[in-house]
Amino acid sequence: MATMVLTVAGGLIGGPLGAGLGGLIGNAIDHQLLFKPGTLEGARLADLRVQTSSYGTAIPKLFGTIRVAGCVIWATDLIEHRSTQGGGKGRPSTTSYSYTASFAVALSSRPVLRVGRIWADGQLLRGAAGDFKVRTGFRLYAGGEDQPVDPLIASIEGAGRAPAHRGLAYAVFEDLELASFGNRIPQLTFEVVADADAVRAGDVAATVGAVEAGELVTQLAGFSAQGTVRETLDALCAAAGGWLCGAGDGIALRAGIGEGAALADQGFTDGAAAGGRGARSIAAPDAAPRRLSIGYYDPARDYQAGVQQACRPGPGSRETRIDLPAVLDAAAAKTMAAAALARAELARERRTLALGWEALDVAPGARVTIDGAPGQWRVDRWSLEHMVVKLECVPIAAAPLAGPASAGRAVAAPDERRGRTILCPFELPPLDDVAATTPKLVVAAAGAASGWRSAALLASVDGGASWAAAGDTAYPAVLGTARTPPGTGRAALIDMASFAEVELAHAGMALSHADMAGLDAGANLAMLGDELLQFGRADPIGGTRWRLSQLWRGRRGTDIAIGTQQPGDRFVLVARDTLKALDLTIALGGTVALLAQGVDDSTDAQPQRVTSNGISLLPPAPVQLSANREGTATRLRWVRRSRSGWAWRDGVDVPLVEEREAYQIEIEGAVGRRVATVEVPVYLLSAQDRAGPLFIRVRQIGTHGMSAAAQLLLSSLGDEQ
Questions:
Q1: How many domains does the chain have?
Q2: Is 384 a member of any domain?
Q3: pLDDT confidence of residue 374
């Protein structure tokens, strides 16, 4: 707008000259005020509040080892982290946002020993080794009566306002990174170890209901007691085939065959008993289920729900399911289902006894034997009518034999260690034939283990005096170190004799072969030390070591580094999606220090440094430097190269790229050293110059500096060496 206005105004005042001057001034104003590059805003949440749990949610009592969801009992709002990058040399800056949250999750209303794995939205957040897959602080309060107040909760809620939640086992997450979970608190489940070993059903019942339950010896790998005491006891009875009965002034749980009273045979028949004092009845087959299923938590399926069932032969179509908040293996659950089905089938038969006062102390739940009736019976109902004690009894089933069962196919969440971050920063020649204007520094990153995904970067351009966020790493790279360098070679030939041996960072990394067409298209490009090369074959030779052969050396002008590698030098497979460009303002020869902030990275890790050596800015050294006698003089000739146009599509010449064509010739001999500058790839040495041996160095003068030198040794007779 200012350009147009001032151009018109200048033309009215000063004619064509004034119009031109006005246009220049207006253009400057437009670029500084109207068209100045702005900041690109990344995705940002409009609402930073999080959803919390409602009051009154029951917290279970946990036993053994079990997986539970827990209940969020405290949380902060989401915390927004803002990072701005770029914006130099007329380019727009980019602002990105990330979010973290801190919160507490109640796990058990009785003490626990520890927490094992943690799942977030079904994927592992914490592995079996205790390693977290994303960055977070984590503290567990085991539920002791003397546990302290969490310092984070106290700092936010204020002194005296934060409870210690004594007697409640809970976990605190501090600054959990939420990018992997859609910037929200994920659905969490925890593997909680409340007791060191499996627990008996009787011990659970005694803890929850204060009942005597020594006879319930059924082993449970884990159990979640939630709801009323009666609901918990009913679940335990279903698991162990038990029942409630009186025991002195309290209640007891009984199960299976044991000691019981003997009752005299009253001569009962299938109808009314003799004298009308008792009866025996059998319900219809459909009164008992034909199929019975047990729902449980299966440790072989990461404690996900499992189902085992038992069927009986014969008529009937009823199906029954028992959902048990217990951890069982598949065989134990199937045995439990078979036992429950057997009990239901036996319960079709009932014996009603009419006895005298001698049976007053035979209470409901007591075990009895009946003369003339096989097995042992349980008193299900008791009544006293007209001075007659009536007992309604059902048979007690013997424990079934355990049988095999399958838990089904389980697809477990992968539990891969991440390991510390390995950073490999280096300067990369342009791969897209676009000439760089600033040093092109990149960093490849991977982890010491296969589960590594990414890490945040910190960069310093002042020797570590100050650090700034430099974004996140790219996708995991294939990288390692050189063990056997490839030695010397020539960039113009396919090196079939030399090979290199490299050791990759972990066993999850792999290399592959490439044919000639693939190599021509840029496959298997790698930075080995300071040399960019390609390899046609990659053969594993044991462990994480690979042998690289069929080498294309010195790619993109890095031939000056051929033969300079040492054992321990970096090896990085170059791929666009695994390289992070460092958008930093740095001069040629400047140094950048980098630190990684990953899940397993130590706070005292040493920074990795990279110095711009100019490979992305300076022209390659001239080639084919030669000397030819022309009478008493000697003519030097060479061929220039370019840092662009490596594909050489037209077959004629490569683009100059630099602002102008110029060369520096350094001549060193017996008469001293002198330097000359020419603008063509030719230089004439006089007879006086050839008075003795000469050492010639030719460098191309580029826009940002001079290339490495092409070198030639001439004897006093002018012979090329």
A1: 6
A2: no
A3: 87
